[in-house]
Amino acid sequence: MKRTAYIYDESYFWHNTGHGALFIPAGGYVEPDSYVESPESKRRVKNLLDRCGLIKELDVINPRHASKEEIGYYHTPEYINKIKSLSDSGGGDAGDSYTPFGKGSYEIASLSAGGAITGVDVVMEGRVKNAYVMSRPAGHHAEADCGRGFCIFNNVVIAAEHARKKYGINRIMILDWDVHHGNGTESAFYNDPNTLFVSLHQEYNFPSDRGFAEHIGEEAGIGYNVNIPLHPGTSNAGYIYAFEKLIVPIANRFKPELIIVSAGQDASIYDPLSRMMVTTKGYKEMTEIVKGIANRHCNGKLVFCHEGGYSTAYVPFCTLSIIESLSEIDSGVEDPFGIFHANMPVIDRLMDHQKESVDKVVELLSPYWNLDKEIGKADVLSNVR
Ligand SMILES: [Zn+2]
Predict the structure, then answer these.
(1) Is 141 assigned a catalytic role?
(2) Which one from 15, 75, 141, 181 is the annotated catalytic residue?
(3) Rounded to the nearest whole angstrom, what is the distance from the C-alpha of residue 358 to the centroid of ligand 1?
(4) Strand arrangement of the beta sheet that strand 33-34 belongs to
(5) Which of 217, 276, 342, 381 could form a disulfide linkage to 225, CB 3.0–4.6 angstroms apart?
């Protein structure tokens, strides 16, 4: 049995976002260029896995489509029909003017959601320990009735609902480390005490009016929505601090039966859509910690779904380091960009203002999770493997 599934379909790379510039449409004085959300960063992940040979050690699985009923676990019938009709007639925008798509993208988006469902199935049925889904289009910004930020259907929400319906799981943890706030996922579970949603993101990035620390859920779900807005410039040290101080302690109290990760590698040091400084080493360490939580509470059951990540050159290396950790196989590939940031002391140094931003969330959530006890690094890491 291979430890890790790699789930993808060639058509993920055929989802066509057309021409824009960075993330805005072309027009006026904006000369048409490729949108930053293009197939390249994702296709190059597959290429690197092929090139270094790690793909041979993975259980490569083609996804199935999510049915209309499954997409309807979250999205409204009107929205699903609108996407289908636009897709059939040549393409359009999914709602916010920043989610363009071409002809046939309904089928590709349903295959992307189906990839997340397939990931849940192969992990829950014990075919593999964990799975990495190369989902495209991404999903975490998509709301029930509106696409946003290049996301059409919310893959992880649909996968979580599938896990509940098919396997009777109650407690699901969704960890979203995409640098943008997972607004669509937050909306889906804001009242739900059985879904622990944790989002690490750059403050005031996108959507700029969502993801505030004070948004901690409501009604029965109060305390189960954990937003960790981080200052620009946060590096590996700040992210790991958030895990040690906040994410691991809360997860240990929540005791998830399944963990789904919205894995956007756009907090990387070379990403054009953020100002964060996470490196391949940081992504590997975060994955190790999440694996530790999964091993402790749910027999290692872990499904990663790819979200954003826009440095075509660097996303493949960040994603490789995640898959190395999941599969527990060293590909032998060194981070070729490592020499350019190896001597930057800020990568591994926690700045006071970064510490304070995490401590503020700890204070907000302490009444719900009894976080007063100081959790030291040794405690957390001793449980990792
Ligand atoms: Zn993102």
Answers:
(1) yes
(2) 141
(3) 20
(4) 24-25, 19-21, 33-34
(5) 217
